Amino acid sequence: MPVQNEHRQATAESLTAGSRNEYLTFSLGDEDYGVDILRVREIRGWEAVTRIPNSPLYVKGVLNLRGTIVPVFDLRLRIGMPMRAYTKGTVVVVLRIVGSDGDRNIGIVVDDVSDVLSMDMAGIQRVPDFGSRLNTEFIFGMVSAGKKMIMILDVDRLAPDHGNGGSSSCVRPGRNVNEEIS
Predict the structure, then answer these.
(1) Residue 182 covered by a domain
(2) I need a labelling partner for 52 at 20 to 30 A (CA). Which of 38, 64, 144, 148 fits?
(3) What CATH number should be reported for the domain holding residue 54?
(4) Total domains present in the chain
(5) For the whole model, what pTM was predicted?
(6) In what helix (H) or strand (E) does residue 41 lie, and over which residues does it extend?
(7) Whether the Cβ atoms of residue 46 and residue 161 lie closer than 8 Å to each other
(8) What range does the domain containing 96 cover?
(9) Sheet harboring 148-153: ordered strands across?
(10) Is the dihedral of CA 145, 130, 136, 56 positive or negative?
């Protein structure tokens, strides 16, 4: 995973005083999360996706995004939160992730989208050490916004095995449906 580590280090080095980035914020229950707006490809209302047999519970299926097959993950389940029924506010955020095997798109199902916030990069703090019982591998850092804390996600870590050449699903994400399958 050298590319991911290099990307994470480059991102960390960009956290200098005075630099600002914009983040799309969304909620999962009472918790607020953010992703770099430059990684967001599209925001769509929830629509049924094509299920993939024998896939992990968090893999909801795939959708066709202008000819490209995009895997869709329920972010709640991916990060270990309990399942929740989808509502009219449920959306899929399509993100670009970066790995050693190239860029690709994934969709994450979130409860609702909140806002786009401009944040001072120096204000993003490391995740505190919660001990070994709490998995924080998907969280890049945390930032205070008013009276709430927003967890900034490391989107490149959301796809299983992305960056080390493998894929745990039976569909190779990102393939154009019009390409010949070899």
Answers:
(1) no
(2) 38
(3) 2.40.50.180
(4) 1
(5) 0.77
(6) strand 40-45
(7) no
(8) 2-157
(9) 112-120, 20-28, 31-36, 148-153, 139-145
(10) negative
